[in-house]
Amino acid sequence: MEADIQQALYELAYHVVRGNLKHDQASNVLGDVIEFREDMPSILADVFCILDIETSCLEEKSKRDHFTQLVLACLYLVSDTVLKERLDPETLESLGLIKQSQQFNQKSVKIKTKLFYKQQKFNLLREENEGYAKLIAELGQDLSGNITSDLILENIKSLIGCFNLDPNRVLDIILEVYECRPEYDDFFVPLIESYMYMCEPQTLCHILGFKFKFYQDPSGETPSSLYRVAAVLLQHNLIDLEDLYVHLLPGDNAIIEEHKREIVEAKQIVRKLTMVVLSSEKTEEKEKEKEKEEEKTEKPPDNQKLGLLEALLKIGDWQHAQSIMDQMPPFYATSHKPIAIALCQLVHVTIEPLYRRVGVPKGAKGSPISSLPNKRAPKQADSFEDLRKEVFNMLCYLGPHLSHDPILFAKVVRLGKAFMKEFQSDGSKQEDKEKMEILFSCLLSITDQVLLPSLSLMDCNACMSEELWGMFKTFPYQYRYRLYGQWKNETYNSHPLLVKVKAQTIDRAKYIMKRLTKENVKPSGRQIGKLSHSNPTILFDYILSQIQKYDNLITPVVDSLKYLTSLNYDVLAYCIIEALANPEKERMKHDDTTISSWLQSLASFCGAVFRKYPIELAGLLQYVANQLKAGKSFDLLILKEVVQKMAGIEITEEMTMEQLEAMTGGEQLKAEGGYFGQIRNTKKSSQRLKDALLDHDLALPLCLLMAQQRNGVIFQEGGEKHLKLVGKLYDQCHDTLVQFGGFLASNLSTEDYIKRVPSIDVLCNEFHTPHDAAFFLSRPMYAHHISSKYDELKKAEKGNKQQHKVHKYITSCELVMAPVHDAVISLHLPKVWDDISPQFYATFWSLTMYDLAVPHSSYDREVNKLKVQMKAIDDNQEMPPNKKKKEKERCTALQDKLLEEEKKQLEHVQRVLQRLKLEKDNWLLAKSTKNETITKFLQLCIFPRCIFSAIDAVYCAHFVELVHQQKTPNFSTLLCYDRVFSDIIYTVASCTENEASRYGRFLCCMLETVTRWHSDRVIYEKECGNYPGFLTILRATGFDGGNKADQLDYENFRHVVHKWHYKLTKASVHCLETGEYTHIRNILIVLTKILPWYPKVLNLGQALERRVHKICQEEKEKRPDLYALAMGYSGQLKSRKPFMIPENEFHHKDPPARNAVAATVQNGPGGAGMPTSLTINTVRLEEGTTEETDKLKEKSQGVVKVINKAVNATPKVTTSNGNSASNSKIIKEKDDKEKSGKEKDKEKKDKTPAATPEMKALGKDGKDKPKEERANKDDKAREIKEKTPKSDKEKEKVKKEEKASKEEKSKTVVTIVESKSTAEKEREKEPSRERDVAKEMKSKENAKGGEKMPVAGSLKSPVPRSETSESEREQKRRKVDTHSSPSHSSTVKDNLNELKDSSAKHYINHTTPTLSKSKEREVDKKDLDKSRERSREREKKDEKDRKDRKRDHSNSDREVPQDSTKRRKEENGTTGSSKHSKSESPSDSPRLNEKEKEKNKSKSSGKEKSDSIKAEKMEKSSSGSKKESRHDKEKTEKKEKRDSTGGKEEKKHHKSSDKHR
């Protein structure tokens, strides 16, 4: 704007100068314009000045004249003085404003000299010293009286006037005196203030600056009194800081440079500390450092700015102090100790009243701090709100240098504690709350920027650390961890001092960790403690990095952490989480199949350290939960370790059976005998873990997350991961769930548990928890609930009778479980509940091993251990008596606890069994079929639970046995066991490593039960004899009555067990041959677990051994873990070999002849034998697998021969069809054939182990066996059908038509056949081709005059010793190895065939289709009657027979020159097996055997001979037979004559049965 005006005026004037405008016109215009602005005259004068210079240079005189006229015209507008200032003297002269320009110039020079160059002293000569003396006396007098500054000022003025004193020098003297008498602020400050009215404002500042300048020599030191005076004057605003600041040294730039230099030096120190320096270099380095230190000791020049700052702080002038600090780099000022201390003192004063009110601990006196005398100091804080105004600000400027004043540190922390107390108490208004929130965030900032960095710089002060924890523990862990994070990762880089401290801490930590061992834990621990008080984050970070590398450091480190403060433990927890969450570290090893060792080490360290020290767990648990939410299950390893160490709950697959047994007892027994380590003193640590879980509501979320994550591992997390790793993660997830659930169950109170765990349907349907896990979590809740209800009922009415108690228990069970029964219905489809009831399902899932059985042996074992311990204490002479007494008391108390617990459990188990007895009738509804029921039971109950945990595996096996023992309706024990053992390939292949181990345990327990029943007839009869689970005819639902004949007899049960063993072998070999990692690993794990009970049969064991040996060779280089497993198993298997027995000892190998079964077979104690029942049973069990076993039977020729020889050594006289003479020539011929057949077979087996059974059968004489078996099978099937009508209505018909004709039989439905699994049906398709081949073979055999008896294939004529070469025996031995057991079903079928072919003396062959129904019925009745009579006779003669047998054997040794190997085998087959069973045929007399041979030679043709021998063999192993008298034997010899006719009928029978098929 001004420029525009100047431009306009200039142009106007210029027009006048050029003559374009008259000067009077211009002056008029200017006159009008002049009033627009005040400074218009000055602007006009400037314009004239410019024109004056311009026109004076011009040669045109007219223009100069025009200019002069214009100025003259405008004189009334611009004052003379302004023009005199601006215009040239000559122009002024021409204008007439001055007389002479020369004079004017001279005058101005004089004035300038006087003004600027002449020294203005009043009177250098007249100044008198006496005046100064009087002045000093005035100022130095005693000021305590009524003397005021005004009075003194008047005196000073007089002195100046009187003695001509220099006023500036007087001011200097006043300041000097003030410096010497600092206590008289109140006098001097007003005096100076008054005096300054007479001086220029700058004078005081200049004098002070001059004083400071005086001390700025390198050697000078500014006195503190001067700083103080300057500070006071600043505080009273007598001088400006900006004016004084420029007089002070050093300059700001120099300060910034120095700060930068300090940072660089700090970094160099760090680099030196981290560098590896060789010893030769070390000495040089040290010398250089010494030189540098000497240089540094030279005193740095005085920093006047800091001196002034200190003075300001001391007098409490915070405003000016703050502005000085703002000019400098952060924390530069306070890094100088005097300033830090001064500032601390100011804070002390400011917080004093508030601290006295809320911060002083009870009982502490403390030393009160007086307030500053000066009123301009910051206002003291009376409330937390006041802290915000000044104190927090002051503390922020202090930063890490609060470390210089530990007392103030403690005060600030205590105030923080008091504030948190108030902040956390409710009841304040909304406005107050908002204020408090702001204050809280300020407190957190102070903690982050001041308290923690200061702690780092303090010298290992444990008290400060504990004091700080007092405040920290009131913060939620999220805030604490945030603070630790800032402290660890940011604070140490903010200041050169902290950078150095960090480097020194790491250096010291390295020194300690290098020397830490188990032996020097205490001294090293103390050093670690000292170091950790100040810099825990740095120290722990280093320690953890070492632990991750060397896991052997874990134990010494954990032990050495005992000298830490509470704060340090908390920091350690944070550091652990940070280390776990480190994104740069890989959680898997490079092979991608195992979890990294650093993670395992950290997890192990976690468990140990959290157990030993009181560290808060919430953060760690939340971290694991968050990782699970993110679908990452690696970190469950940490939870697993923490629970294991803190609660003593161990999850391992390596538990011994003794430990497992102990785990089924009460809590005390579990603790004593259930774990590997002695679990001691976990009470406190498990309480801490429980509190952490409950306080942060993590118990249920962690359970649910783990349960869901199990599947997540496979379907989401698994992705590209190696199958082995996925299995490991799944196992880890599952094991941790089991362990964690176990912890909650044993540590949470009933209320806590019930409050947190929702009902089963909510768990499954809303939270999508798998059923097994859901029940696992709910189970303790049911147990708690029932026991509390039971206690309530007991208290309600005092009835001590056992019955009353049981009744109350059952009532409480019903009350608790009724809602559960309703809830489980929603878990499965309605169809499921047709077969098993919700009650059964809930009962199965809600009980545990604790409820089913008392582990008496475990209790006894632990009690005995304690007794031994007590004896050892008595015998120990060195132990002091009081300690002895204590130890003995402890042992006695423990013993009493265990006995009490055992008694309690015994009562509980009895109650539970009573309850189950009442429930069992409603368990299995079997509305479809019993087979379907078993399927559902296995699918929904057994299989999911048996792989859940080791104890559950044992539980499942026990539960099956319990259901059997309870005689549960509609439960077929046989079917259940058969399904469990039959096809284990699929289950094994789909298990993880740990599941395989548990599945193995389950199979082991199941096999244990079966082996017990198999071992002794008495046990079998007692535990299974007349139990509905062993019914072989599966009648329609609701049929309870078991005719004794419907039960599976003992010998047949042995066949069934053999079949199961064979099935297990087949499955194992299949898995081992797949080459699949999972299959091989899992089957080896399962086999190792079932080793006590399997393999029992020698040839099966050998087959397995060879296969495992092959694995060892194949996997040695490829997969070392499989190699290790296989080698381990192989070694154990070899050690079991002496306990294995030949097959014919395990069960009667060759099919027992069923000659009038009733006579030879004793089904139960004194019961009448019913052949059809056996047949039916075996058909049922075998239907899906008969053909398979047939094939394998034919494979195993070697075994067959071995056993044949044994059989032939003692032919039975009880054979009822076939002629009783044998021709040795024919036998020899057969044997020659056999030899060639065997050799061919051997070759085939070497090449193709799975060669077709028909080809193998060709290599033998018994070609017609499979066909005959099948024929028999069909007949049996028909008989079954006769006995299993479709519906309840047909029950009566069953009773009437039990002996009905073949046509009726074929129409009815066989329950088992219906429910035959599809896999089995498929398998059946293949053997149908084989049947055709078998038929052809049979017809050829018949044409050659082959025998017509069934099971010919498995029986061979005896061969004289001379003809049995050694090589042949070798061959037999090898074939024994590959032999796969002929299924017991075939034996039973053969029994039936013999029964049908029995001599006409007993009854005509009722299977011929031409017979009428009525005749058939008659025959059956006769059959029954005779069999009953004969069984009674046999019982009476039992005793006699045993004696006979002894005698017979001795005779046979003399009379029969048989091959020694045969004789051995014979003994195995007869007397050997009699140890196991009572089923041996009574006709074992070798003497008779010889007679028999003679008769055969004289009487019979080749056909008849072979027939009779084979029949004899069959008779020998007849499975239920009692011993026969000689009288019987003679009878049967006569019968044999008629048996040629029986043979023909049999042939017809086979044809008819083939047609039926």
How would you summarize this macromolecular structure in one to three sentences?
The chain has 75 helices and no strands. The chain has 1557 residues and is mostly helical.
Number of helices: 75
Q: Name the poorly predicted regions.
A: 1037-1042, 1152-1416, 1446-1506, 1508-1557
Q: In angstroms, what is the radius of gyration?
A: 55 Å
Please tell me what the overall shape is: elongated
Q: For the terminal residues, how far apart are their CA atoms?
A: 125 Å
Q: What structural class is derived from the secondary structure elements?
A: mainly alpha
Largest sheet: none
Beta-strand percentage?
A: under 5%
- The tally of beta strands, per DSSP, is 0
Helical amount: over 70%
Mean of pLDDT: 75
Q: What this model shows, in words?
A:
The chain has 1557 residues and is mainly alpha-helical. The protein has 75 helices and no strands. Helix 15 (252-274) runs parallel beside helix 26 and helix 51 (993-1015) packs across helix 52 (1017-1023). Residues 1037-1042, 1152-1416, 1446-1506 and 1508-1557 have low confidence and may be disordered.
